[in-house]
Amino acid sequence: DTGVSQNPRHKITKRGQNVTFRCDPISEHNRLYWYRQTLGQGPEFLTYFQNEAQLEKSRLLSDRFSAERPKGSFSTLEIQRTEQGDSAMYLCASSPDRGVLHEQFFGPGTRLTVL
Amino acid sequence: SQQGEEDPQALSIQEGENATMNCSYKTSINNLQWYRQNSGRGLVHLILIRSNEREKHSGRLRVTLDTSKKSSSLLITASRAADTASYFCATDVPGDYKLSFGAGTTVTVRA
């Protein structure tokens, strides 16, 4: 089963350090999304790619956050100068370009803890 | 910002009983989806209902959508211990691809 994969699954870092997460979408999916989920809340949208183009960024994505999808396949999400408030589950999802049906397939997430 | 709100926040039922949870949203939507999340893990897609549909079934799941009330319900029949999870509704609006999630309903099925 080649679903969405994310690495690492867990990351513990000290405040001020940089971290990078990777997402590998389902291979034929050209849309890729990043969401952040804090404890007891639903996921919140961060950013979205269509192939290699980053088409939308949430206001949640401060200038310390950057996401790339260089060849339209895997994506990376980097957080610079991490803060304790960045502690959350970071979820990646992908979907095919299939008209108006927007079913998204999620990966297992990367849980970030900033000490 | 979160478009949807689920009700109740938490639900505890006996195995074999039905579980019903509701979702309300604020703006006109394209589709409404329900996802399940087991503790600390990723989301699993359960069912998608389009804005022009009123009811949809998938196995033990039944989803209704009332666009006039901007609300949806998810019914899980004959619940099992494995149904213990958090359930989220998510909406997308015309011309946009991102999903807006509610805060979820946590369901506990007691053996």
Description:
The complex is a heterodimer of chains A (115) and B (111). Chain A has strands at 5-7, 10-13, 19-24, 31-37, 44-50, 53-57, 65-68, 75-79, 88-95, 105-106, 110-114. Chain A has 115 residues and is mostly beta strands. In chain A, strands 2, 4, 5, 6, 9, 10 and 11 form a seven-stranded mixed sheet that branches. In chain A, strands 1-3-8-7 form a four-stranded antiparallel sheet, with no helix packed on it. The radius of gyration of chain A is 13 Å and the shape is globular. Chain A starts with a strand and ends with a strand. The model of chain A has no long low-confidence stretch (mean pLDDT 92). With 111 residues, chain B is mainly β. In chain B, 0% of the residues lie in helices and 55% in strands. Chain B is built from no helices and eleven strands. In chain B, a hairpin with a 2-residue loop joins strand 6 (55-58) and strand 7 (61-66). In chain B, 38% of the residues are buried. The chains are: A mainly beta (115), B mainly beta (111). Chain A binds chain B through residues 4, 6, 31, 33, 35, 40-45, 48, 56, 89, 91, 93, 95, 100-109, 111, and chain B through 2, 4, 30-31, 33, 35, 40-45, 48, 50, 88, 90, 92, 97-104.
